[in-house]
Amino acid sequence: MKHRFFITMSRILRVSFLFLCLGMSVTSLIAHEPKDGDVPAEGYQKRVLVFGGTGWYRHPETAAISGWLARLSDDLKMEVDVTETPKDLLALLDRYEVLILNNSNELTSLLDEKQRKKVETWYAKGGGIVALHAALVHQKEWKWLHKLGGCDFNSDSDFLEARVVVDPKAKDHPTVKGFGDSFQYKADWTNHDRCVTGTPGIQVLLRVDESTYEPVRDYFKERGGKAMGKDHPIAWINTLDGGRFFYTELGHDVASLNRPFGRKHIVEAIKWAAQDGVTKKP
């Protein structure tokens, strides 16, 4: 498996211990930036960078999800590297075709203006973003990302099984194809502050049927959380502004990803996001 972790020395023991506790196998932990001459391994023509930094609430399984994503490298035939360090976006992003935002909420509290502008410029040149679960939480102050994603967070459910429905216009999209017009799935389902259906540039891929589960958990009921109703998109794409953007509500924890549909959903999303543009130069 071709994946690397770019982390500071102060985090090596903490992250290593966490992965050991979670029973995860990681090829290597690298505390330095790759050298300029680094190139993808033979057969791995493209690169993916997983960014697990968070500016607000940190989901307990964020690190575990980064490890799960890193181990997709063989399925993807791409190198998958992981970082939580904002400066890596400024220094290294040009080497990658895809940036995965792993529950990376409230990024204006974590990334400075130069780092955010770097992401915007890279995306405009053909980069692809795969945003998981909480990546669209508290992003209104980063107007570019908020516009790209189309909405923000309102509330969520408990981890529950629900009926997922494929949008008829998206039935042949690789991220949803092969599981029928609808199917049952378990996840934490997010209620957004607006519905993205009909938003320019956005194509809805999946919706969840709120009549098949309780859409707002008690914590948010007590704080005015609202369900979305009959039109509740849970996965969509946006192809405006030069790049490719994919969002899915899956990814609160590994359990929502590590099933046949979840695995294919994410693998195909990364492949889709990497399609445009040329292989980045080292």
Give a written overview of the molecule.
The chain has 282 residues and is an alpha/beta fold. The chain has a single domain (3-273), classed as Class I glutamine amidotransferase (GATase) domain (Rossmann fold). It has 8 helices and 10 strands. The protein has a 10-stranded mixed beta sheet. It is globular. It starts with a strand and ends in a 9-residue tail after the last helix. The relative contact order is 0.16. Mean pLDDT is 87; it is low at 7-37 and 277-282.
Strand portion: 15-25%
CATH architecture label: 3-Layer(aba) Sandwich
Number of helices: 8
Distance between the termini: 19 Å
- Helix percent band: 10-25%
Secondary-structure element order, N to C: EHEHHEHEHEHEEEHEEH
Strand order of the largest sheet: 1-3-2-4-5-10-9-8-6-7
Overall 3D form:
globular
Query: Quick one: CATH superfamily?
Result: Class I glutamine amidotransferase (GATase) domain
Question: Can you count the beta strands?
Answer: 10
- Reported by name, the CATH topology is Rossmann fold
pLDDT average, as an integer?
Answer: 87
